[in-house]
Specification:
This protein has five helices and two strands, in the order αββαααα. By secondary structure, it is mainly alpha-helical. It folds into two domains: 17-89, no CATH class; 92-127. A two-stranded antiparallel sheet has the order 1-2. α1 runs antiparallel to α2 (52-70), α1 packs parallel to α3 (76-89) and α2 (52-70) runs antiparallel to α3. It starts with 16 loop residues before the first helix and ends in a 6-residue tail after the last helix. 5% of the residues are buried.
Amino acid sequence: MSAEVLAFRSPDPTPNREDLLGALVDLHSLITIDPVMGASPVRIYFVLPISGFWLAWLTIAITVVLAVYSGWEGYLPELFAEGSILAWLFRRSLLARWTAARAGLQARRLQARRAKQRARSMASLHLVETHEDDDLPPEIEGQLRDIFKGKTKPR
């Protein structure tokens, strides 16, 4: 008969910074997406009611302020999570702006292309000198005047 001895490792009493950081990223994502879920107001300290919409923006503002003062490297996962949730929340308006910007860019490119074509065609035009002393006979001038006024149709 043989006996096996199992040794369990004792848990580390101090959690790693990476473990807490990973939990904070999930927490920030859930807090930021709360307005989408339509949850009831959150009570801070069980007293102050605040809606999920304002809580999301407050969380983002606090994260940005802490990132500015403490260095953004440590807050990069939170900033990424909050930014991705905001991009998801405002995807329709962001997509509409992106589409409008692309359409405007294409319109400007088309206008520039037409301006180039117009400049090339204008370069091929030549000035034709007219002689003002060459008058048409009065009967032809009368016929032209009637055509321009719409009294008669050209032949």
